[in-house]
Design goal:
Elements: H1 17-36, H2 53-62, E1 67-68, E2 87-92, H3 95-107, H4 110-128, E3 135-138, H5 143-149, H6 153-159, E4 176-178, H7 196-203, E5 207-209, H8 213-216, E6 222-230, H9 234-245, E7 249-258
Parallel strand pairs: 2-7, 3-6, 6-7
Antiparallel strand pairs: 1-2, 4-5
Helix pairs in contact: 4-6
Length: 279
């Protein structure tokens, strides 16, 4: 049986005795915690790991070929079939990928953050290699979701991503905010279970640029919107509207997963070495 398409990663040994001892103590502490507070794989239920090695391998297989995903999202396509906003997804929202994203959004486990951050960075690198001057703009979470979780999933993933898009860490601007929707009278909350029309109406006018320097920093900048899951595209379209209103230039978006697989007309994402942007 062929091995996985990525090299095995081995933990290096520290040269200093203190650090080696610290590693041993940390490992022992993790084993004690696992005994006192046992955890299970969020995908298969195997004990002692948030994500077991088999499910992590499957997750990486599901996301090794990022693809153009906007054709499955009506809010991102014009009536004549032209693309309004190009989007690259790391994978299809199914199996281990959907289970890992849901578990991370609920609890923010460290192991899931590490794996999903690498997947997100890989999708960004595949789509936007060589674009050092672009800034990443995460889609903001609602105030209610933040109070419930205690964190913003997209911001947390971006902060933990091992970047390889360029020789330097790409800039990201926390420049968007959720606001009370003038059409519904409520701030934007969860959209699970809503249809295409309801989603579009609910998000329209629900974002703005941050006040002060963060909002002004968008002016004249080329931006990439970053989110976790793509469904109808209404959220990304609203984020793009808010960025344009603040004077930013939206070049595209990247997501961890798309709920619809690409159709035959979808264009695959370029490889990391190509250095080409999706058009």
């Amino acid at each position: 049986m062929a091995g996985p398409p990525w090299p095995a990663r081995h933990r290096g040994e520290h040269r200093h005795r203190f650090l080696r001892v610290w590693d041993l103590l940390a490992g022992a502490a993790a084993e004690v915690v696992a005994l006192v507070l046992p955890v299970e794989c969020v995908c298969c239920g195997k004990e002692d790991l948030t994500l077991c090695s088999g499910c992590e391998r499957r997750l990486r297989m599901l996301t090794r070929h990022p693809f153009r995903a906007e054709t499955g999202s009506p809010a991102l396509m014009d009536t004549d079939g032209s693309v309004i906003l190009p989007v690259v997804a790391a994978g299809i929202y199914r199996e281990e990928l959907s289970q890992s994203i849901l578990a991370f959004k609920r609890h923010g486990q460290g192991q899931l953050r590490s794996v999903l951050s690498k997947i997100l960075a890989g999708a960004l690198a595949a789509a936007y290699a060589g674009t050092d001057r672009m800034v990443l703009v995460p889609v903001p979470t609602s105030a209610g979701a933040y109070r419930k979780r205690g964190f913003s999933p997209v911001h947390l993933l971006l902060a933990g991503a091992p970047w390889s898009i360029s020789s330097r860490h790409p800039e990201y601007l926390d420049a968007l905010r959720k606001v009370r929707n003038p059409r519904t009278g409520n701030s934007l909350g969860g959209q699970k279970g809503l249809g295409r029309g309801d989603r579009s109406r609910r998000v329209r006018g629900s974002m703005r640029s941050a006040r002060g320097a963060r909002g002004r920093a968008l002016r004249g900048r080329q931006c990439i919107i970053v989110d976790d899951v793509l469904t109808t595209g209404a959220t990304l379209a609203e984020a793009a509207r808010a960025i344009h209103e603040a004077g930013g230039i939206v070049r595209g978006a990247v997501v961890l997963a798309a709920t619809r697989p690409p159709d035959a007309a979808a264009v695959p994402a370029q490889s990391r070495q190509s250095g080409r942007n999706p058009r």
